[in-house]
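User: Hi! Is it possible to get a structure for several chains at once, not just one? Here's what I have:
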Amino acid sequence: MQYIEPHGHMVSRTTDDYERMALAGCQAICEPAFWAGFDRASADGFYDYFRQITEYEPKRAARFGIKHYCWLCINPKEAEDIKLAEEVLALIPQFLDKPGVLGIGEIGLNKNSRNELRVFEQHVQLAQDHDQLILIHTPHLEDKLKGTRLIVEALRNFPKIQPKRVIIDHVEEHTIDQVLDHGFWAGITLYPESKCTPHRAIDMLEQRQAERIWMNSACDWGISDPLAVPKTMQEMRKRGWTPAMIRRIAWDNPRAFMGQCGKFGL
Amino acid sequence: MIDWIPPHPVNLVDLGFMDSRSKLIDLAAFLDRVQRAGQEGDFRVQALKNAIALLSLDEPQRAKEVLLSFSDPSTEPIAKATMQGAIGAHRG
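Assistant: Yes, the chains can be modeled jointly so their relative placement is included. Here is the combined structure:
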């Protein structure tokens, strides 16, 4: 069954992963801008990275018949440095018209600091000014609850931002309701140890009847599985899900959200 | 977009019992291990023990309550991020 990977950091993955994903039915991968595993030394590092995910990575994906899209931002881990953040924010507009750019992301919070929040709000303003979709990262582990609350609260200060054009990713059982009840989309991430297992994801999908939710692997340079989505689709079959409902999560929902950007073509 | 179609009923216990049993034994062994090593005073071990107590809840909200028990309950942003990683439990 074909599927979309809505959140994969393919710059950190090999062509073996592309091949496996293609064999598993992946038709499109969406790659948010993220932390490289170390702090970049200057805005120039981000400029090159933006070129990589807007120009080179789509060509790498195309060799496997996979469409590649991306999102742009300075990630929350590097947002403590306000001066750097503002330099990077100033770079983003020149990339927004690139054919695969879907919007601003993955912005958000990491340790829930004042500077991170300020940079988050600057990104939201940028998205508002350029009418862009928004993809949001919620913090890890013990910081997630607080960060999600701060993010939802901050978004309410931008009345022109439509909740249906915002996806708040990496939700778990204690944050999913807050995200969906405020009208945003929610992403469930299938990532070992620090995020959800397939069965927990399926539980949440059933509780919320698959409304405005997608699931993703967020595969990156850490121990993660680029096939987490098709493996979870397999678990859904074991749990009695119909093919139509599996397709809704793995295909229809991502298309519905990202199709709000006219560049997303599937 | 099609309307929600609930899954066909399946025996979830058949599906998940062995995996859950394995994880529970692993958890028990971890607590034994840290105690033998004299490391059970670590705040994370106490956080784990507090979370385990929540498994006795009657309502099907255990996963949510466990996550809440590990979470930072404060509401104001911190002045400055002094580290980039997360630990897994709020120090309190």
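Chain B has a mean pLDDT of 96. Residues 41-72 of chain B form one domain.

User: Great, thank you!
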